[in-house]
Amino acid sequence: MSQALLSRPARPIVRQTKLLIDNRWVDPVEGGTLETIDPSTGEVIAIVAAGTAADVDKAVKAARRALDHGPWGQIDAAERGNLMFGLANLVEGHAKDLAALESLNCGKTIADSTGDLEGVVNTLRYYAGWADKIEGKTVPVRGNFLSYTLRQPVGVVGQIIPWNFPLLMLAWKFGPALACGNTIVLKPAEQTPLTALRIGELAIEAGFPPGVINIINGYGETAGAAMVAHPDIDKIAFTGHVDTAKIITRQAADTLKRTTFELGGKSPNVVFADADIDAAVEGAFHAIYFHGGQCCTAGSRLFVEKKIHAEFVERLATKAKARKVGDPLDPATQQGPQVSQEQLDKILHYVGLGKSEGATLVSGGERSGDKGFFVAPTIFDNVKDDMAIARDEIFGPVVSVLPFSTFEEVTERANNTSYGLAAAIWTKDIDKAHLFARQVKAGTVWVNCYHVVDTTTPFGGFKMSGQGRENGEAALEHYSETKTVTIKLGS
Ligand code: ADP
């Protein structure tokens, strides 16, 4: 939606702060709380219930009951789809309020939140459509037997999501899980629980039976870890930091839980001199600064061919200096705050490393204002591949510009990372585009565009950027078990 069509929303109201277990809003067993902060001011928006292992256990029991003894396990697949369509319609009807609450809590601009809401509704509808199309096969086995396969839910799935796209990540997790008939225990990030709780209210209104959708706010080390350890959770779907995924992998080993991971990136964005330079400048800018760089696919390593490098950086810097950083609820704002003091500190730490390691600071490199967690759009030029700012995921509005000369050189350098989430190339040469797409080790490759992500196409990482795929038909594989049934025919 264009920013011109948006008007400033009223300050959203926080309606729900408890835990959702078995379609009831309950206080946590141990009475814990967490503060939800407005990142544009640093002030507390709400005190929210923080669950622990005891609450996780209650939620898992409710989810198990719903699966094994509730109506959910028995209803027609088409009816599951209808419930999901109903939730999508409710979300669409409340999209403005949800977008405002998302912006207030996670700091993304109201334009970006509005875009996310479209993605949420599309995802729920896409997977609602799948619910009665997840089919098994008949298999031509040897001998006088009939063999066929059934696709059945994995069971109770634990879903742990981050703070950068709180609603969209919820939808990416809910969609395939519900379509396949699983029941859910979801933990939102401790920084951003508010919109997930509102979705919980809408799920009850949509008619989901008790226990199908449970939401446990809480900290990763307590509620999250309890989910990973719980013997009656069959699968963990996680989006977050690679270090957390390593911890989860170790802990999940005890119960041999299925796990899928969507993790970080240090995505190469490669601009050749033969590209449409106007489009490439816009694209490179969007690639890094979308949601203040708090995006796992952020185009944070910007490779620019030497012939155009100086002019390209100058044009980027002009745009960076003109970027309107401020109140995310103001429709004129182009970049809101970073999500937390912790992220602000981490970004400024990397800016310091960039300077001390000898990169050229062209723009930004400092906090914006003295309240809230704002960072000026930052450009480092003449970055070397082995500098920390070129290797580590910063998760902020900091781009490293790396000049290059040849296709072979840049392809090798693009792959010289432990990550492999996304990559992009800007060129008019169709050979270069296809060769790069084939050779780059990344789960998503964009040609002459960036951040184009649709619910219909698989999304996920090579290497340490993840395991498994979200979105599209691919996600259904991770939320269903295939059962082979073999029947002897005749005697
Ligand atoms: P970030 O650094 O972006 O905050 P995290 O990986 O720490 O990323 O957080 C992503 C999600 O993982 C959040 O919901 C957080 O609470 C959860 N989390 C953090 N630590 C653990 C853990 N040890 N076990 C399970 N979940 C965790």
**Strand-residue proportion:** 15-25%
Radius of gyration: 23 Å
Q: Characterize the biggest β-sheet.
A: 7 strands, mixed
Task: Give the helix/strand class.
Answer: alpha/beta
Number of E strands = 20
Give a verbal description of the structure.
The strands form five sheets. The chain has a seven-stranded mixed sheet, with helices on both faces. Strands 9-8-7-10-11-19 form a six-stranded mixed sheet, with helices on both faces. Strands 5-6-20 form a three-stranded antiparallel sheet, with no helix packed on it. With about 500 residues, it is an alpha/beta fold. It has helices spanning about 55-70, 75-95, 95-105, 110-130, 165-180, 195-205, 220-230, 240-250, 275-290, 305-320, 340-355, 390, 405-415, 430-440, 475; strands spanning about 20, 25, 35-40, 45-50, 140, 145-155, 155-160, 185, 215, 235-240, 260, 270, 300-305, 360-365, 380, 400-405, 420-425, 445, 465, 480-490. It is built from 15 helices and 20 strands. Helix 1 runs parallel beside helix 7 (about 220-230). The chain is globular, with a radius of gyration of 23 Å. The model has no long low-confidence stretch (mean pLDDT about 95). The protein binds adenosine-5'-diphosphate.
Defining key terms:
alpha/beta, seven-stranded mixed β-sheet, binds adenosine-5'-diphosphate
